[in-house]
User: Fold these one by one.
Assistant:
Number 1:
Amino acid sequence: IHAGKIAYYLEDDPSNLVIEDIFTNERHEIATDIGRIKRVILNPMQNDALLMVEPLECTARCPTDLWLWESENDKLTLILPDSPSDTIEWSPNGEYAVISSYQESPFLLTMNPSSIEQLENIPSTTRFVWLGGNWVRFVVGGFGNPTAIEAELSTRTIIRTIPEGLSGSETAYAGVQWSPDGQELALVDVGLEIFDENFEQLVSYRPDGRSWYSFEGGEAYWKPDGEWLIVAEEALIAGGSQPRWIGVAKRDGSVRRDLA
């Protein structure tokens, strides 16, 4: 189930599928006859879906094909035979899907009209997060010291790469955030730090330094005008990751207010 739509098999037949909108009751029955449907990834904005399909006669270590079903013309298209897809996710606006794996560079599916291409300038990775309708951040390299590569998909260009060592552990997912004007970057690691577009440090809010905290990073969110941030900082306490500080901070470093 996703975005108000639910996908399920029809009459226990894994080669037939129903996609239904639970709010409008709009219903699409898809008689695929292409194999056993292993997984369905629904488009959040349209009735289109990606189907991971394996042969009906296969019982172990089955090859998986990736099919696209387009609701407008009830069309099924094989887009990646024997697909190496480990992670598949649609963009929030439903115009793109990223298909990624441990084995090779990710693929980008573009809708209206549908086409697929491999992003050969992005190393193999299964870690990525959507930053908006056309923006995606790929996280490559080791978990302990990742590099974050951000791309604008409508132009197929890498916009910027966050260097190794700047983002700690998993903060490359959410803890590293560019300001709305794209001029400054906020990082939550041990406290909040703000860098310019050349990764030179401008501001550093340090924590209170209590020695029993082992900091786990956190997340920062910019106010739309770019003047303030709300910050959630986490710490490793008694074996678990716990929120340590939630507050607001001004972009120029002049004000920090604790909320909790």
Note: The first strand starts at residue 5 and ends at 10.
Number 2:
Amino acid sequence: IKLIVHAFSRKKVNYEKRLSEQPKINLSQTDTTGVLKYLFQNKEDVKGIEAVIKHLLSLAADKDLIIKLCLNQLTDEPDSWGDIRASQLLGELQANETIPQLIEGLSDDKDDFLCEACEDALKKIGEPALEHLAQVIRTGDQSQIIYALGILGNIPSGRSAEIVMENFNHLWNKFNDMLLECIWALADKRFIEPLKKELRPGEIRAERVYYFLCKLHQIDDPHLVEIRQRIETYRKRSEKTLKILSGQEKGSPLDLIH
């Protein structure tokens, strides 16, 4: 595990280094189309991405052209490294008109890197994406719904909470973990009652979220004491397990299973 984490960390550091390096292109002497062609190269190792995107964002007069070429990239070269950077750029531009294309990029059949880039872009666009996300929650595929919940959790709006509330039962039955994360992030008081109806003793994740909401909104529930005790027991058991696994304490994690 340590080797895997170390390798991932090195790869991340190298990627971030490439982002901040100087691009292999003279930005001041290259037209907008040429700069985008450089950015959209279908390879992972494109140097100076941050500088290139910063330059493109400064070209206010060319915004429409940039958006058009980004959309062309998403259509003409699907599942490429260029797609990922086009999505990132659309998010930085907060190009509301491209929300449908970004949502399409969250689909089951899309690469994970592209899904994450489209997710980040939609988070940057924010509230204008909400009604589109409401439709995704109702009719999207599994990947779209999972990412949509993550996006909604990052848009602190009453409407975000309403969208989740309107589809609570469906989301609880099929996307429980992501729903709980979204509820925790939005922390809306309206979630307390439907969540209370679904609580089962010992379902720690749900109990943690419920306990948090009640404390946050000063809701008095006599069950909070026992919920708190279960949460604390689970926390101590988890800490004990980690210490055993890391060699800090002797024993077997199986001994902690009751």
Note: Residues 224-245 form the longest helix (22 residues).
Number 3:
Amino acid sequence: PDGLRERAASALGPPTEDDPVLRAARARVDAGDHAAAISALLQAVAAAHDPGRATAERRLLLAALHWYLRDGAGAAAQWTAVRREAADARHRARAAIGLGVLHMQAGELDSALNELSHAQVDADVAGDTHIVPLACLDLAEARALRGQLTDALRAGRRARDEARALRDGALEAKASRALGQVYADMGLWRAAEATLADASALARAANLDDERLVAHALRAHVALDARPGDRTAAAVALDRLLSLGGGQDPEGLGALVHAVRA
């Protein structure tokens, strides 16, 4: 859920420097005064005479703030308004990603697929190279969860390739991890192991400790599933997981290790 929340918030995109309302709101966010930022943005949105670019971007920031504060309903209201009103395909794509992630988190996979498919189309229409890999990444995960593995593979490959073209190591790490999981779901063990190894290395370079942990956990599962009679490879991967945990036990990692060893 936290990773989904991060991606939903990242769908806001880069800051807009020519809107004084957004600049002031971001300054309040940087100062930790989220309530004041939300209040100012709500007033600006309510006073707007037309749903133009400024209103869409203010709503996107509002949605990101609501989502960061774990107010899914508040975020959904703003994203829905942008999807309905915005003329710019980039804004619609960003809003659709947020709604898609929200539905995916709730287990509403058909609704998630609908929103994320629209997000990919709008991102392509807008030619937004930064939002396309985000849309494809979430679409790959939703399709995999729905059992649409061939489509998930296509979306996952595109997410990784687009992130690589952008030289965005953090995004490529996440896309590679998602793609590796799809390979594993399809029983393509060598491709899964190689792709998850890439994801781990990229996550390490980008200082994404949680993402690296997930990649290692998936590598451990791949080792078990690919070679059920050979526990040595899995044991090595699990020992690496414990060392990465820094003595802590994120997400019940120690229980996973002992369960697999048993």
Note: Residues 2 and 68 are 9 Å apart (CA to CA).
